[in-house]
Amino acid sequence: MKTFSVLCALFAATLAAEGPDNCYKTCSGAAREWVVGDHTGGDNAGMVKVIVDLTSSGFKSAPIVSAMLNGENHNVQTKGGSSGIRGLTATGFSLNIHKDLSEPAFQITPEVAIASNWELLWTASGYGC
């Protein structure tokens, strides 16, 4: 019975896999085109968003994504650089970056992100066939 259970588990794991090992790929890049974020509170400040296009990577399903925010100023005061991914599909995702609004003297805007040379460094891994 144990042998049958092990074989069933291996068969189920094979069926659950998205593709053969030779179809697994990793792509990476940097996104720098910042726009107003999804939840700014109506003043278009406090949150920015970047949209990442993964179509050239050729994924067949949503990949596993890691991201980090790099920049010259203000990036260490932000939240969401690795956890704000939204709408992840095989062809792309967006990511919101925000700052705690308890410090109203500084507001994140697309202009601040661009002037601070922010870039979202990302790596995506998944199946391409």
Cα shape: elongated
- End-to-end distance: 35 Å
Helix content: 10-25%
Number of helices: 2
- Sheet/helix structural class: alpha+beta
Mean pLDDT: 78
- Beta content comes to 35-45%
Strand order of the largest sheet: 2-3-6-5
SSE sequence, one letter per element: HEEEEEEHE
Beta strand count: 7
Q: What is the CA-atom radius of gyration, in angstroms?
A: 19 Å
User: Uncertain spans, ≥5 residues at pLDDT below 50?
Assistant: 1-16
Largest sheet: 4 strands, antiparallel
Question: Could you list some keywords that capture this structure?
Answer:
129 residues, alpha+beta, disordered N terminus
Any overview of this molecule?
By secondary structure, the chain is of the alpha+beta class. It is 16% helix and 36% strand. The protein has two helices and seven strands. Strands 2-3-6-5 form a four-stranded antiparallel sheet. A hairpin with a 2-residue loop joins strand 5 and strand 6. Mean pLDDT is 78; it is low at 1-16.
Structure, briefly:
By secondary structure, the chain is of the alpha+beta class.
What is the fold's blueprint, element by element?
Layout: H1 2-16, E1 24-31, E2 34-36, E3 47-53, E4 64-70, E5 85-89, E6 92-98, H2 110-115, E7 119-127
Antiparallel strand pairs: 1-7, 2-3, 3-6, 4-7, 5-6
